[in-house]
Amino acid sequence: MKKIRFTGVVLLLTLTISFLPIPAPAASKQPVRAKHGIVASSSDIASQVGIDVMKAGGNAVDAAVAVGLALAVTHPAAGNIGGGGFMVVRMADGRTTTFDYRETAPKAASHDMYLDKDGKEVKGLSTVGYKAVGVPGTVAGFSMALEKFGTKSWKDVVEPARKLAANGFTVSYDFAAGLRRSRKLLEQFPESKRIFLNDGMFYEWGDTFKQPELAATFARLQEKGPREFYEGKTAEMIAADMKANGGLITLEDLKNYKAIERKPLTGTYRGYEIITMPPPSSGGPALLEMLNMLENYDVAKLEYNSSDKYHLMIETMRRAFADRAEFLGDPAFVDVPTKGLTSKAYAKELTGTIKMDAATPSSVIGHGKPAVYESDQTTHYTVVDAEGNVVTQTYTLNFGYGCGATVKGAGFLLNDEMDDLAAKPGSPNGFGLVQGEANSVQPGKRPLSSMTPTIVLDKEHKLWFAIGSPGGPTIINTVLQVIVNIIDHKMNIQQAIDAPRIHHQWLPDLVQWEPYGLSPDVMKALKAKGHQFQDRPSNMGDAEGIMIDPETGIRLGAADPRADGKAVGY
C-alpha cells in the first residue's frame, strides 16, 4: 500500500500502530482513526476544541494550547491556569524541543517552612490552602510554545475556553461525582464552595456549569495578552488573595516568573528513539534508566502477564526510583547526573544486581553511582495534526483540585505543588515518595516532577507514537509499561493503554496493582519471590496517546478506559 507522507507539527496524542492481529490483553475497543488530525485528552469537549482549531487552519501547537485552556474549564481537578507542567514538541521537519512551565517556590519560601518547632512536618500544610501554592506557570508556558511554533493568535486560542466558561457545558456523571468526592477539600474555601460545589447544593449529571469569573479572566488575557496573568489585574487578584489568606506569592514573584525552553532528553530502546522531558522532570531520566535496564532482557519471551515479566519490571522500577530519590531535582539548584543515570553502561551494572528468582528488599537497595558514567492530580493530552507535528503535554495542580483554594474574583483553582518539594528530606510526601536534599524547599526552585510526556520514533526516525499520563509517581511506570507493551509485546496503542499496570517506587516497599490486573497464581508466584503488595488494588493513570500507522499514515488515537476521556479526530 502506498504510504501517505505528512509534513508539519504534531501535538502528542497516542496513535495506534497497525500490527498483525494479536490477542488483546483484555477486551479493547479499536483506536480512533483519523486521516488528518487527532486529539486524545481527558475531556471529549476539550478534544473537540483542538479538532476545531486544526480544522480552522491551526497546527498541533495551536490546538494543544487551546485544549489546555479548555481543560481549565471542563476538567478543573487538573486542567488549569493555576498550575504548571511540561510540553514536548516534535515538528514534522524533525525539530524537537520541550517547554518547562513548572511552578516555582515563592521568594519567601524557606527550607523548614512546613516543619513545627520540633522539626516534625505539619500535616496538610504543604497540600491544603495558600501556603501550598507555587507560582503558576501554565499561561507562560502556553504563550511561549505558541509564540515559537503556533500559527494562530493568542486571542484566537483563548476564545474557545472563554466561551465554554461563559456559556457553560453539560455536567457529566464523572464530573459531578468528582466534585462530590472532593467536598471536604473544596468546602473549606468559600469561593471554591460557591463555584464548584454550587454553594453546597452540588451539581448533578445533566446540569449546565457556567463560570463567569473564569470567563472574565480569559477575556482579560485576550485583551491584554498572556503577561496580564503575571503583571495585570489577574496578578493583583492572586497577590491580594494570597496576602489575605497567609499565602506567600507576591506581585514580585508573579512578575519574575519565566517559562524555560529546554533541550529534550533522548535515548533508545531496541533501536527506537525516545524523546522525553529532562529535569526538573524525574520522569524522563527514570524512564530511560528503566528502558536501558530492560534492554538487557528478552522481555517479549517472558510474555506480558507472566510472573517473571512482572518480577523484572518491579526490580527495574525499584532501582530507578532509589536513584530518583537521591539525585533528581531542579538543575538550576543541583548538579543532576543525567548522563550517568541514562547511560547504557550504568544500566548494565544495575541489572547485575537483579536476581530473577528473588526480590531485592528496598531496605538493601540504595542509590547507585551514576556519576561514574558521566561523559521531572495531573492530566495529559496528545495532539497530532495533518502535517505530522506532534505535541505531548502533561500539566497539573498536583492533587485533585490542587490546594482547594480558588482565586477570589478570578475563578480558577490554585495548585499545591509545594508538596512536590521535600518538606522534610528523607520523609515521604503526599504520594509516599521519599525525596532527598536535592529537592528541598528553596526560593525560586522548581519542584521535582514525575510527569513524563514522551514521543517515540520508528527506526527510520519518523513519528511512531506519543504517550503520557497523570498519576503522580505512577506516571513514569505507566509510560514505561505502554512503551514495553507496544515495542516488546506488539500491542496497538489502545491495547497498550488498556493493559493492566503495576507500580513500585522503592519506598514504601510495596507493589501497587490494579483490580483484576494480576491473576491469583501470578501474585502467589511473586509473593513466593519476596514481593509485598498493597492491601487493595486501585487503578493507575489516565494515559492518552496517539500512534501513526506506518503503512497508511492514518492517525490512531486512544483514551484510557480508566477515566472519562476521548480521542477525537477528523
Provide a concise account of the structure shown.
The protein is of the alpha+beta class and 570 residues long. The chain has one domain: 4-Layer Sandwich (Glutamine Phosphoribosylpyrophosphate, subunit 1, domain 1), CATH 3.60.20.40. The chain has 19 helices and 20 strands.
What labels describe this entry?
alpha+beta; disordered N terminus; four-stranded antiparallel beta sheet; globular; single chain; 570 residues; Glutamine Phosphoribosylpyrophosphate, subunit 1, domain 1; eight-stranded mixed beta sheet; 33% helix
Fold-level CATH name = Glutamine Phosphoribosylpyrophosphate, subunit 1, domain 1
Structural class: alpha+beta
CATH architecture: 4-Layer Sandwich
What is the straight-line distance between the termini?
Answer: 21 Å
Contiguous uncertain segments of 5+ residues: 1-25
How many domains, as an integer?
Answer: 1
Globally, the shape reads globular
Number of strands: 20
Largest sheet: 8 strands, mixed
**CATH homologous superfamily heading:** Gamma-glutamyltranspeptidase, small (S) subunit
Count of discrete alpha- or pi-helical segments spanning 4 or more residues: 19
Helix percentage: 25-40%
Q: Tell me the radius of gyration.
A: 22 Å
Mean pLDDT: 93
* Top-tier CATH class: Alpha Beta
Estimate the strand proportion: 5-15%
